[in-house]
């Protein structure tokens, strides 16, 4: 018998019914046997969130995540959509870097190994890269889950959750609460229960991943803001209807990318407790500011990602398009790791000489333009 407390079950039990008029169906989703919900990067997730789900077929789940999936299968499409959202944002933020948030096929399942060397189906001995990239991926994916679940609840697509009714006093003179305030606390709870379920070992890796997961989720809570709509004759805005809303996810990605750029390097310390040896993290350089719960942390340097390496999920940078005029990381010198670059010309058809006609359409000609494309050797 499982006696472990379930905070999510307690939260769901006290959730108020979603607002009247919201649709409480399953968005066309059908949950039946025989479907694989792999989140490996590639075509596998192109239709993620619109597939039927079988919990046992999702790769990489630990037993606690499997129980979560079966107990709360109604919100699993939102969990999956959140991981997809996080990965897409990661690919945007790292689009000009040597590692552009790609990984070897089938190595990245839902909160499965992320840039983990030697970890396939469990932890193995040997060196593992625990760099800033891993920190960012955990943070943005955890934030993505919280964000997507929160949004799904506000849209009324789940009977388990709805809008946040715990308003913190009146919003101000001439304002009133209305609309659907997004319940980010519930989304964060779902993300915490699911994402942190695999990080239950007394080692440095679990400590690091739990910290970075929470840093990603805290970003959402820190950036909740009021949105208001004016009411009154001729736009007089005599009354404002206001509700709490999440920030745009791109803003969260930009914020966490800044945290990645200033991530704190840690060292691993071992000490014995009643349960055995436990690993904790301590800041490496005492003269640096100690990281807060909102900062990202790592304890090993990252590989250079110049060459293909299936253990770290690196495809290398050969044949990557580079910017010949840039001296930054996306420039041909750095991105190509000193190997040089090739240049070819491409002809592209584009619309040109567009004219607006009254009223109301635009006519364009088609022009062929020649571009120089530079790729790494």
Keywords:
single chain; 377 residues; alpha/beta; Endo-n-acetylneuraminidase fold; three-stranded mixed sheet; 8 helices; 28% helix
How does the SSE layout of this entry go?
Blueprint: H1 7-13, H2 63-71, H3 76-93, H4 132-154, E1 175-177, H5 184-195, H6 204-222, E2 225-231, E3 239-245, H7 249-261, E4 264-273, E5 276-283, E6 297-298, E7 308-309, E8 314-315, H8 332-335, E9 341-357, E10 361-376
Parallel strand pairs: 1-3, 4-6
Antiparallel strand pairs: 2-3, 4-5, 7-8, 9-10
Strand order of the largest sheet: 1-3-2
Number of helices: 8
How many structural domains can be distinguished in the coordinates? 2
Through-space gap between termini: 59 Å
Q: Report the portion of residues in β strands.
A: 15-25%
- Poorly predicted runs: 16-50, 104-128
Taking the sheet with the most strands, its summary is:
3 strands, mixed
Rounded to the nearest angstrom, the radius of gyration is 24 Å
Category by helix and strand content: alpha/beta
Mean pLDDT, all residues: 79
Give me the strand/helix succession.
HHHHEHHEEHEEEEEHEE
- The number of E-state strands comes to 10
Please state the overall shape, judged from the principal axes of the Cα atoms. Answer: globular
User: Which range best describes the helical content: under 10%, 10-25%, 25-40%, 40-55%, 55-70% or over 70%?
Assistant: 25-40%
